[in-house]
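User: Histidine kinase, Winogradskyella flava:
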Amino acid sequence: MKKNPKITTHLKRALLHILFWIFILLFFTSIFGVGNTIDMNVVYFSLFLMPVTIGATYVSIYKLLPDYLITKRYFLFGLYSIYTLIILIFGAIFSIFFALAFLTDFKFEKMTVLSKSSVFIITSICLVTLIVSAFKLLKLNLKQSKNNAELEAKILEAQLKLKDQELKYLKMQIHPHFLFNTLNTMYGYALKKAEETPEMILKLSNLLDYLLYQVDKPLVPLAHEINHIKDYISLEQMRFNETLYVTFSEESCSNSIEVAPMLFLPFVENSFKHGKIEDGILSIDISIQCEANNIKFNIKNSHTKSTPTQLGIGLENIKKRLELLYSDRYELNINEDDHWFEVQLKLSLAHA
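Assistant: Predicted structure for Histidine kinase:
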């Protein structure tokens, strides 16, 4: 028959309590007696004090500390502690009286083996209760600290899972939007049976490879992001033909710099989707500058102030992704005037 672990634990705890109170009994016997000899009357006298000592101690460690002190109900803790102390004092006095009466048959002068006053005896009982309570309080604080640490770890784990799920959700929103625009362009060329269609398919293939296999990585080389921006621009140039004017510049961007995938491409996509053709031309100016641990990304497109600007799914998503991935490490400014809509992004790659 297998032993119940809970029963075994309770038996061990009960045994430890019994051994501890036997030790306290011996302690009382040693300090209340006269000389180094142990008199049985002192042992009996100490036994009379044990119920008061045990009762006050258990009230303190199992009621006052966990229910009032640990829960920060300080007023009730102080009030009930005073009540407990008063009851302890009266209980100790009655225990001393009845112990002496029982042991001497009301002839108190016979109890010459006691060497301590009633005040010392009551102080000893209080001291035992106080010491045990101090150890219990330490144990409760350690347990609470452990529970708090476990709770914080669970909260952090939940936050990380939530963050990961939100990032995946945002990426899922970007993918259909990106594909919709690109496939629309390709569909138009296919209808015209244009010679540029194979080149468009090749560039779209490169972009799909980036979207399907690279975008789930936490970081990709900045050079990859730049190359796919160029592929995207090439696809759009085929669609817009002579109605598009794009300038793209990059400065001091080494191959060792890494960023989150699809970080800048949605800004480019947004400029093409929401940019306005002025004087027969859609103008877009893009620049990426790398200096130390910072990246400065700037993009602006021709824009008519009279028409309300729509930020689009891509731009709204990238704002959320920036907050999740680069919180407190980015500056995003969006400006518009009568002719231009501009986005300025400064990104710090160094962790705070």
